[in-house]
Amino acid sequence: MAGLREIQSRIKSIEDTRKITNAMYMISSTKMRKAKQALEATEPYFYTLQSTIERILRHLPEMEHKYFEKPNMERHKIGLLVITGDKGLAGAYNHNILKMAQQFLDNRENQVQLFVVGELGRQYFINKHIHVEESFQYTVQNPTFSRARWISEVLLDKYDSGELDEIHVIYTRMENSMVSIPEDKRLLPIRRPSLSNIPSDVYQEEFFLIPSAKEAVNTIIPNYITGFIYGALVEAFYTVHHARMIAMEAATGNADELLRDLRIMYNRARQAAITQEITEVCSGARAQRSKT
């Protein structure tokens, strides 16, 4: 059995660790609530843009534009935006994202240009000797609309110049309050809705785009891409802190169990030491009586 001092040292060490994990849980909880408020504040704007694009495609199904999908067009030059975290201690959050990105890169038919948000993602691809076209640093911990616009401008410049045929983003999405899943979302070109999926009772209102349909799409789509990237950044920020909360809660619970076991061990060792001392005193007293 370990000595009393050794057990006391282990108890002190675990208590210090428990304080850290509990503090990290509280910090992540606060940041998660802040991110949720930011996400809820942007959703009306994003969904309005999304519904506007759907209306354009519904009313002008024959419209041709570089941002809309063309039938039977081969696309092999793909831009992949991967959103990871800057730090660990978040369970399988980063592992799931990087696993999905690696599966995407393993498809040899595609020529992939890699764009990375997050230090862990950047380090992963560097260690794998995979070229990163651009790394957007100082973004994960502070997702803002200006940073999202910067990212979207870089991606759209390459798409408009013909360097990219498709743009995908891999991020973590909250399925519900308890479950988050990695998701691969194609941003461009935008898929056209199937005519068979449009309900027959949809009201076909009179629809005008001023000054022209092309000019309207040229304005709406970049804002839509920026809005989606901002939403993905905020949702990734939300989910990483949600994952960290769960991990720190589990770590704190494990620390409590270890402390309970160590305190039992300490009490047993202390009781054994006291019993041994009493036995030695009694044996000494008995020996003194026998001499007299």
Kindly provide the radius of gyration, computed on alpha-carbon positions and rounded to a whole number of angstroms: 30 Å
Distance between the termini: 38 Å
Q: Estimate percent helicity.
A: 55-70%
- Note the quaternary state here: single chain
Q: What share of the residues does DSSP label as strand, in percent?
A: 5-15%
Order of helices and strands: HEHEHEHEEH
Overall pLDDT confidence? 83
Low-pLDDT parts are: none
Number of DSSP-assigned strands: 5
Largest sheet: 5 strands, mixed
Strand order in the sheet with the most strands: 3-2-1-4-5
Please state the overall shape, judged from the principal axes of the Cα atoms.
elongated
Q: Structural class given helices, strands, pairing? A: alpha/beta
What does this 3D model show about the protein?
With 292 residues, the chain is α/β, with parallel strands linked by helices. The chain is 59% helix and 12% strand. A 5-stranded mixed β-sheet has the order 3-2-1-4-5, sandwiched between helices. α1 runs antiparallel to α5 (213-291) and α4 packs across α5 (213-291). The longest helix is centred in the C-terminal third of the chain and has 79 residues, at 213-291. The two termini are 38 Å apart.
What is the strand and helix layout of this fold?
Layout: H1 4-59, E1 77-83, H2 93-105, E2 111-117, H3 119-127, E3 134-136, H4 145-160, E4 166-174, E5 180-188, H5 213-291
Parallel strand pairs: 1-2, 1-4, 2-3
Antiparallel strand pairs: 4-5
Helix pairs in contact: 1-5, 4-5
